[in-house]
Amino acid sequence: MVATIPITHMIKQASTIQPTNITALDEILNGGIPYGSLVLTTGPAGGGKTTLAQQWLFEGARHSGEVGLYISFTEEIEKAARNIEQFEFFNKSFVKSGRVRMIDGRMLLNSVPFTQESSSELTEMDQLLTVIMNLVDQTQAKRVVIDSITALIFKLEGVDAVRSFIFRLGYALSSPGATVMLIGEADLNTGSQTPVEEYISDGIIYVDSESGRNQQMRHLEVKKMRGINYRSGPAFFEITAKGVTLYPKIPIYGLTAMTDFKTRRKTGVKKLDEMMGGGIPQGHILLVGGNTGSGKSTLGMHFLEEGIRQGEAGLLVSLEESITQIIKTAKEHDWDFDKHLADKTLMSVSADFIDIYPDKLLYEIVHAVEENGIKRVVIDSISSMESSAYARDYVRDFLLQLTAFFKSNGINCLVTYRTTEMFEAHNKQTMGGTMASELQLSAIVDGIVLMRYVEQDQEVRKLLSVLKMRGSDHEKGIYEFSIGKAGLIVGDQFEG
Amino acid sequence: MTKRSQQIPLSNQEGKLAVIRRQSNIRSYAVIKGIMGSGVIDSLPLRVRCECGLPICEEIIEVNLSERRQIRRNYPRGFIAVPSHVDYPHDVTLFKSDKLCVVEKLQFSEVVTDL
Q1: Which helix (H) or strand (E) holds A385?
Q2: What is the pLDDT of residues A360-382, one digit of tens each?
Q3: Cα of B48 to nearest chain A Cα, Å
Q4: Alpha helix locations (H) across chain B?
Q5: Distance from CA of B32 to the nearest CA of A (A)
Q6: ipTM of the assembly?
Q7: Which of A52, A96, A221, A450 has a CA between 20 and 30 Å from the CA of residue A336?
Q8: Tens of pLDDT, residues A393-445
Q9: Best CA proximity match to A53, nearest among A235, A185, A232
């Protein structure tokens, strides 16, 4: 009936994984956090630590029926409760029923010292520890948040005291199987206020934010998590009415390309398909570069329409025009995108035109593809990302991950890219000389189709050529083309 | 696990600490009761810190609320300690099980009850 727990013989039982129930965080953590872990969630002020922790408690109560305990040492508990009411994860009935208990830690601190006599061996923190331990016992909490450990550390003198307190806190709470999330405050350059908590914690989740053009750019990174093989590297996240929504990167290592040269997807432009040797090889990424208005988007629509005609669902990632505008343009060619969207043979993903967040976009594309069995994707255009995205490196990472994902799933993607050179054939400049070079797209993609203008005989003509078709022969000629009701029609070879 | 040497008697400091730990355990329960109200559950654990008085002791004894209440009621002068921390012959054992002892510390005979 009674058992002692020797703190000096601390060998934790083999833990099982406790899902955080924050979907994408569980993806990053490869399932969740080992039960009984002491996790430090740290980062600068305003990074989203408290929201993440509170969401973890409420999602645990909702999905796993686990009791959560939130102890605030930084603000009035009524204020903390008011702040989370705005989020959809908040559930008042959980608070009322005690499934999530919100406790004013300052009230607990005021309760100590419990005795009139002070003792160097039994500090306020020892007594606080006893109270927290008993709270976890009696509430049977499986998730505990201490917000913040920094506030408590200020009360402790010296590194040894901090180490001892955190060590014993972790043990006292993990014994009944509670996972503890300590909120800490730190910035990337200086680390934690007291690095001790980082050494002692079983896990560290770092969150930070920086200013984007239109909204904050937030990142979460699991820096340490004992007992699991987590996904490293920062993941973009947003805080919206839903709470924390994460967009983790796609792990690209170990993906096998499913390229098939025998199976080709036609663009719907007969002559272009012939120029490419019968269409785009399955799993290939085709870059369509060209001046503004040259017909890149029309070719993209052709590709999607042809797929739908052949029973293949498509995804349109629109980064320049609104879907409404695209539907109208498609109608001019008698392509009923409105109907395709309604019957889900065509899906669409769009982004904030001012701030396009590659990680978020990537996540949405991957999920749309997986959920709808999509085989054809058009991204129109990647140039918008280049001008909107926070850092160019992000765009390159985005493309690398996306192409790896598409290739491994045998999906064809047509990416449009707006070039800046005008009339370059007329000037006899190197074709595609600067096109896509800044992002080094040509190395990432498998094929390149170039659409250009040329000035001849007092008029502007449109030219089309296939510059590259990896692993496959292709027509090298330059052809004139026009765009009409039936879409894009490739004419005779250009003889300028 | 820390182990008390049978040659070293309970010092005043240790006795004082034992009393403080016991008071801390008792007060802790009061705080919990204040928070939980009638929601405290007898069958659930309400662990105690070892009340032996050893300065380096960090043992936690796992008892449930019902057991703890029984101990406090039956042994109002008792200190709950892990068996290896009993200070023979200065502690008088009132109750003993595999995992804990309830002892009376003769120099510190204050009657306490928390439940």
Answers
A1: helix A382-388
A2: 889 899 999 999 999 999 999 88
A3: 8
A4: 12-36, 65-74
A5: 6
A6: 0.81
A7: A450
A8: 677 788 889 999 999 999 999 999 888 654 444 444 434 444 544 456 778 89
A9: A185
